[in-house]
Amino acid sequence: MRDKEKLLDEAEPLRFLFSHSALREGWDNPNVFQICALREMATERSRRQLLGHGLRLPVDNHALRRRDEGIARLTVIADTDYATFADELQTELSPTASQST
Asked: Where does the source fall among the domains of life (predicted)?
C-alpha cells in the first residue's frame, strides 16, 4: 500500500480502506474503527492482536491523540466465537473487573 500517511489527513477524501492483510503486515495505523474478521482465528493471541489495532486512541493529521468519544469507537464484525471472545476481553479489561481482583 502506497501513501498510507495520506489517510491521516482530514482533507483526504478517502474514508474507507479495504485490505485483507494490512493489519497483519505491521502497518501501524492508529485510526482503525471497523474490523471485519472474515476468517476464524485459531489463537487467542491473534484475536487480541487484531482487536488491539482498533483499541488505540485515534490521531489527527498532526499525529496528536484525539480523545473524542464520537470517533474513538471500535466496531467488530465477526463470527459468534469471536464476538464471545471480544465480550469476555472487554469484561476482563473493564475498570470494575480490575478492581474486583
From this structure: Bacteria
Cβ atoms of 57 and 64 closer than 8 Å: no
User: Is residue 32 predicted with pLDDT exceeding 70?
Assistant: yes
CA dist 72 and 70 (Å) reads 6
The dihedral region occupied by 73, where left means phi > 0, alpha psi between -120 and 50, and beta the remainder, is: beta
Distance, CA of 16 to CA of 26 (rounded, Å): 19
d(CA 66, CA 63): 9
User: What pLDDT score does 97 carry?
Assistant: 55
Distance, in Å, from the CA atom of 61 to the CA atom of 8, rounded to the nearest integer, reads 5
Q: Are 72 and 66 in contact (CB under 8 A)?
A: yes
Question: Domain residue spans in the chain?
Answer: 4-93
